[in-house]
Amino acid sequence: MLDLSDLSLVTTPPQTEDKDQGFLKRLFKSTTSLKPLGIFAVDLEMGDKFLLCYDGCGLYTDKNGNPDPDTKIKWEAIAERVALHSPYVLLFNSDFIEAREIQSGKLVQKIEENGIRCLWDGREADGSQPQQARVHAVDVKDGNRTRHEIIEIVPVTDSESAKLV
């Protein structure tokens, strides 16, 4: 990962020498594999809180990479890909899409579908975000590899809560 202050490569999460060291040891010991999938700024105005997304969990850090031991988020399943669709972070695996609020990590919705994959996470080729966030996925229908549906995931609001369709 990159240190955002000077763009140097650092170990993620960084090795700390304070009270967080025990937390990090427990985190890495409790998870068989932590494959990094993405990093997202949570507080866009202040720029001082980030969500590190791994295949098995998420972890909030400050701008210096110091983890918040109270905010580890365990995903419902092992994620294969992650996408930001503000104010949500979307986690994909072949059986479902998990939508979580980026600020709190709270599970908002789980879309179950066999054979679903993220095609485009909304970023432009140069890594920038487009004016309007979009995420595209492909759904393999009935286990038939010759029949696919391309879907766009967008947040909609109903009378009870925000959902993704």
TrEMBL record:
Keyword Signal attributed = no
The UniProt entry, under PROSITE patterns, shows: CNH
Which stretches are transmembrane?
none
From what superkingdom does this record's organism come?
Eukaryota
Q: Is the Cytoplasm keyword given for this protein?
A: no
Per UniProt, what is one Pfam family of this protein? CNH
| MF term (GO), any | guanyl-nucleotide exchange factor activity
Q: Which UniProt keywords apply?
A: Guanine-nucleotide releasing factor
Q: Could you tell me which InterPro entries the record lists for this protein?
A: CNH_dom, Rho-type_GEFs
Which residues does the UniProt record annotate as the domain CNH? 1-126
Which PANTHER family does the annotation name?
RHO1 GDP-GTP EXCHANGE PROTEIN 1-RELATED (PTHR46572), RHO1 GUANINE NUCLEOTIDE EXCHANGE FACTOR TUS1 (PTHR46572:SF1)
**In its UniProt entry, what is this protein called?**
CNH domain-containing protein
Which species is this UniProt entry from? Moniliophthora roreri (Frosty pod rot fungus)
